Amino acid sequence: MAEDAPLDEELIAESPANEEARPDDRIDDERHDEDNILKPEFVRRVTDALDEGDKQAVYELVEPLHEADIADLIELLERDERRQLVTAITDLMSSDVIAHLNDFVREDMLEALPASAVAEIAGELETDDAVQLIEDMDEADQRAVLAELEPEDRAAIESALSYPEETAGRLMNREFVAVPEHLTVGDLIDFLRTGEDLPSEFYEIFVVDEKHHPVGTCQLSWILTTPRQVALADVMKRDQTLIAANLDQEEVGNMFQKYGLISAAVVDASGRLVGQLTVDDVVHIIAEEAGEDVLRLSGAGEGDINEPIQRTIRGRMGWLFINLWTAIAAAAVIAAFEGTIQRIAALAAIMTIVSGMGGNAGTQTMAVVVRALATNQLTSSNTWRMITRELTIALANGFGLGLFMAIGCMAVYHDPKLAAVLWGAMVVESVTAGLAGVLIPVTMDRFGIDPAHTSTVFVTTMTDVIGFFSFLGLATLFLM
Amino acid sequence: MAEDAPLDEELIAESPANEEARPDDRIDDERHDEDNILKPEFVRRVTDALDEGDKQAVYELVEPLHEADIADLIELLERDERRQLVTAITDLMSSDVIAHLNDFVREDMLEALPASAVAEIAGELETDDAVQLIEDMDEADQRAVLAELEPEDRAAIESALSYPEETAGRLMNREFVAVPEHLTVGDLIDFLRTGEDLPSEFYEIFVVDEKHHPVGTCQLSWILTTPRQVALADVMKRDQTLIAANLDQEEVGNMFQKYGLISAAVVDASGRLVGQLTVDDVVHIIAEEAGEDVLRLSGAGEGDINEPIQRTIRGRMGWLFINLWTAIAAAAVIAAFEGTIQRIAALAAIMTIVSGMGGNAGTQTMAVVVRALATNQLTSSNTWRMITRELTIALANGFGLGLFMAIGCMAVYHDPKLAAVLWGAMVVESVTAGLAGVLIPVTMDRFGIDPAHTSTVFVTTMTDVIGFFSFLGLATLFLM
């Protein structure tokens, strides 16, 4: 067998096998349940040991866990228990554990540390994780930490911070493998075996021209399955997805999903290769962005259960306060019909059915539209189709459910005119809900405003006001 | 330079570079806008050419597009235009385009094809994509297509179909690279260069024992950076995340996210390696599962804009119908206080503010809890903390917003007793909303019922009924 390069003992010692060797323990073991959640009994064993001050026992319990599980464990504990735990397992608190921690929990823990200690952690992290660690600090703390960093790390982090928040430039990793086009597969393998400044893991080799512009890309599997003497130019794929450094992270996620990317080259405005994004960094963005919509539509802000409670209260109360005005507007409509209600008190009960149905129908449509906008399924090319589609659905629902309610109303109140008014109001309300549910988020999106964040208030106002107005208005016209 | 293997012309001819070589065209070009969405002008050019019956022009427009963009284009067109387009670009309709298509659009198009044509497409797809293609067909069609398949493909698909829907076994790919432990890095590279049954792309080599149980895993980058004579056993990582074939896909997504996986081994009940999952197959699951919650909480079903409209109407109407009963229950509460409302008609307006605020507050809490359950952040270890947290938030919001409304009520109605009743009702309502928002989804989840699917109805019922009851009840007690 041919030998390509001398045996390098150091390289072996540093190989991930020896760093992380641990028995496999991730399937339904004594620590995890079948959904891979830490079992409450295990968490209790840790907290009991903490209560008894038995650091040795704590350490032995935590030691076999994966970094991500240690982070989970810290999050599951009460605030004061967290600090006790961290003190007991200091040398297990690797930068990987810190990178896995929830933002709020990490922030809370870092606040207790001096800048030099934070800088030490940041220096150990990959650029993207270090940026995440530092970007949320206030400016003074940020500057203190940056000052403590090695010049190289500081330059990398400062360059990342120069891109706007939530863009590819913030997320990307500055460590990647880029080689010139003239190499053969063999040259490349030799370079990789001797190269020192390589990232610890990579999935793709970028081929660049002399101006550092990407000209092609090689999956590692193509290199491993190709003979040494083949030119890289013949193996690489010239057609590659390039990501602009200032692209919004939601669109980065959409591109990774759409093209099934594992990693991708990030280029600056002049087309130079400046970094790479790997899917493991993008996957939590994809999940976050998709999960965010439900939180934003319901006004729950970031909806993070680890957020400091004062901040959560402020955020939620702010949203409820805005919505109170919606409710007040709707109440004003009702108050305008006080005379009608005084004469037919039954209307007060029935009107809430109309507005309730409208609110639910509007929310349905809005949820569909917001998701379709976020996933780029709804574009200006098919907006009109979407509107007619939702209008059809609204008419079907309005007539169908309205008929049902009209029959029910007849059965209870024996008043055909009241039943007809209810039916009419429900059709009007259903159409209002359907149209508001499409048009409001689409309009917001067209103006560059996040539809998930803003649509609910307007849709609710529309359905409440029109619901009460159409029902009480028709009742005043035909029943008084 | 050492030569490891003879130059293999065939291998080069088959390399991805030559198959897919195309100029890079994915950043802000004439076809895509800055969010990587197909521009409406481009879509119009295609539909205009279709209208004119100019197949050549259609073909030239579509040819430079990536498979995922061709799929997007098809989805953006009207139903009859879709068929015209597909006829114009038959030889661009690769299996990759079909794999990228929306389920409903694909189903609609496949219905027009005979079983043999579907089988031909399925045979070209990777197992996981073929399964996706076939699993939604009715059983007779499924059997017809399976009968037309090559025995090997059929066996693979049938084995996938033997796992429950939405599990790792359905998603996994049966093509992967597994080698015995005694190899060196050099042996492995030689095997890969000559091996014929290799998947076209892979990111990880699985090392297995003689019973085909996984014992370790090697990232390709580790192999490429390690000298040939090093034993695989010294490079591989023994600690790997194994995925049980019957694990639910949502949990698969959580594991990929949590551990930052690129690919992972799937094992059957006896621990044998039966397949691999790669992150590009999991990433759309992660996005779907996270995005699903907003659709389920709002009762929008799958919320797919390509779903046949009759099915959408049925789904949405069903949800609204169930919610009508909630509204009827609330209306019944109001009707019970008809006498009170008849005397003080203003109550009819004010009561909707109380229930509206409660509905919003309940939705906020519910959204946070449902997401926290889905992402495994909320477990039985921290449920109690979550309950006290939400109770605190609810009390703060109830007292704060209630005070604001009481002051407003005084200003409008000059009735301190009415203001006090409103304040009291808002505190009761806020606490009800907060507790229902946590306890209902948590209870559903504990009983193995999808909390996103079922919580809204119960939370709304609670907030509506308690909102009206507390306000009208207190009003009857203190104002009459």
From TrEMBL, chains A, B:
Classification via CDD domains: CBS_pair_Mg_transporter (cd04606)
Transmembrane segments: 317-337, 344-373, 393-413, 420-444, 456-479
Membrane topology term: Multi-pass membrane protein
GO MF annotations in UniProt: magnesium ion transmembrane transporter activity; metal ion binding
Compartment list: Cell membrane; Membrane
Composition skew (Basic and acidic residues), residue ranges: 19-34
Domain (CBS) ranges: 236-294
PROSITE patterns (UniProt xref): CBS
InterPro entries: CBS_dom (IPR000644), CBS_dom_sf (IPR046342), Mg_transptr_MgtE_intracell_dom (IPR006668), MgtE_N_sf (IPR038076), MgtE_transporter (IPR006669), SLC41_membr_dom (IPR006667), SLC41_membr_dom_sf (IPR036739)
Top-rank taxon: Bacteria
Chain positions covered by the region annotation Disordered: 1-34
UniProt GO cellular component terms: plasma membrane
NCBIfam families reported for this sequence: mgtE
Quaternary data: Homodimer.
Function: Acts as a magnesium transporter.
Protein name: Magnesium transporter MgtE
Phylogenetic classification of the source organism: Bacteria, Pseudomonadati, Pseudomonadota, Alphaproteobacteria, Sphingomonadales
Annotated gene: mgtE
